[in-house]
Structures are given as structure tokens and as C-alpha cells.
């Protein structure tokens, strides 16, 4: 059986700021607080390497005890490249006269960073919602048709027996 396990994961991040390109006021910027808490795939993979797992005496003993045989180790590095366009959904806090902080909402709502603009994000979610509405309607109609067929057959057979 194949399964993936993250045995060692290191997350290092540097706080970054978002500045609107071509803005007249270059002193105002948005500081993104804890970007790794945000959902959404906004980072680009800049490094990926697959290595074979080491096979030594200690590894063979560990394999015998655990019943798992490591096959490969995957190293990958993702980052937000300079100049990337990014849209954030979260709580906005004014820190000073010229600094706005984007952070995870305190009331538990989602904190999202996406590499697209607002309209494409909303279009994607509306398309998903329309798909679920269509599937719900088709499932409902199928269920109603089956139920009507069963009821018709049941009462139709009773009418045939009474004659």
C-alpha cells in the first residue's frame, strides 16, 4: 500500500508587504501577517527534488518493526515570487497612518490568499455552486421519478388484483 507521510517539514517565512503597482501613494502598503495560516495555493514551486531513501542496517530494522518501507524522499520549495499578483481575504487592521495589516479573522472565518483577482475567484466559486445546484436538481428529479414509479407500480398492482 502506498501512502505519503511528511516526516520533516520546515516552514520558514519572511513577512511581506503588498503594494499596488502604479499607486500614487507609495508610502501606504499592506503587511501580510502569518501568510502560512492562509488557505489557497498562492506560492509557486521553485525547487523540487526526489531522492531514493537510504537503505542501511538501522533502516532495515526500523522497516521490520514498523512494516513500512520508505521508497523516496521528496524535497520541494515554494515561494511567492516578487512581482506576483495576489488577492487576500481576511481581517484588515489599520496599524498606523500608512500601514494596513491583513491577518486571519479573530472570529474563525477563513483567511485566504489567492494568485488571481477578486472577480475570477468569485467566478470560480459561482461555477462550483452552480455545479452543485445542477447535481442537486438532477438527483432530486431522479429520486422523485423513482418514487413515483414505485408508488404507481404498487397501487397499479392493487387495482389489478381488485378487478
From TrEMBL:
It is an enzyme of class 2 (transferase). It is a multi-pass membrane protein. It comes from the Eukaryota. Keywords: Membrane, Metal-binding, Transferase, Transmembrane, Transmembrane helix, Ubl conjugation pathway, Zinc, Zinc-finger. It is found in: Membrane. The chain crosses the membrane at residues 131-155. It catalyses: S-ubiquitinyl-[E2 ubiquitin-conjugating enzyme]-L-cysteine + [acceptor protein]-L-lysine = [E2 ubiquitin-conjugating enzyme]-L-cysteine + N(6)-ubiquitinyl-[acceptor protein]-L-lysine. InterPro entries: MDM2_MDM4_MUL1, MUL1-like. Its EC number is 2.3.2.27. Residues 9-145 form the E3 Ubiquitin ligase MUL1-like domain. This is RING-type E3 ubiquitin transferase. It comes from Xenoophorus captivus.
Amino acid at each position: 500500500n502506498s501512502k505519503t507521510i511528511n516526516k520533516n517539514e520546515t516552514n520558514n517565512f519572511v513577512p511581506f508587504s503588498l503594494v499596488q503597482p502604479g499607486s500614487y501613494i507609495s508610502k501606504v502598503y499592506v503587511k501580510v501577517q502569518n501568510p502560512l495560516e492562509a488557505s489557497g495555493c498562492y506560492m509557486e514551486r521553485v525547487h523540487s527534488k526526489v531522492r531514493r531513501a537510504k537503505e542501511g542496517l538501522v533502516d532495515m530494522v526500523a522497516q521490520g518493526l514498523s512494516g513500512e518501507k520508505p521508497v523516496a524522499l521528496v524535497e520541494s520549495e515554494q515561494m511567492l515570487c516578487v512581482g506576483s499578483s495576489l488577492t487576500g481575504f481576511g481581517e484588515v487592521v489599520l496599524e498606523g497612518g500608512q500601514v494596513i495589516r491583513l491577518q486571519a479573522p479573530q472570529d474563525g472565518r477563513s483567511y485566504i490568499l489567492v494568485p488571481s483577482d477578486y472577480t475570477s475567484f468569485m467566478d470560480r466559486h459561482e461555477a462550483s455552486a452552480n455545479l452543485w445546484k445542477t447535481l442537486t436538481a438532477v438527483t432530486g428529479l431522479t429520486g422523485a421519478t423513482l418514487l413515483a414509479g414505485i408508488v404507481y407500480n404498487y397501487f397499479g398492482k392493487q387495482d389489478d388484483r381488485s378487478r
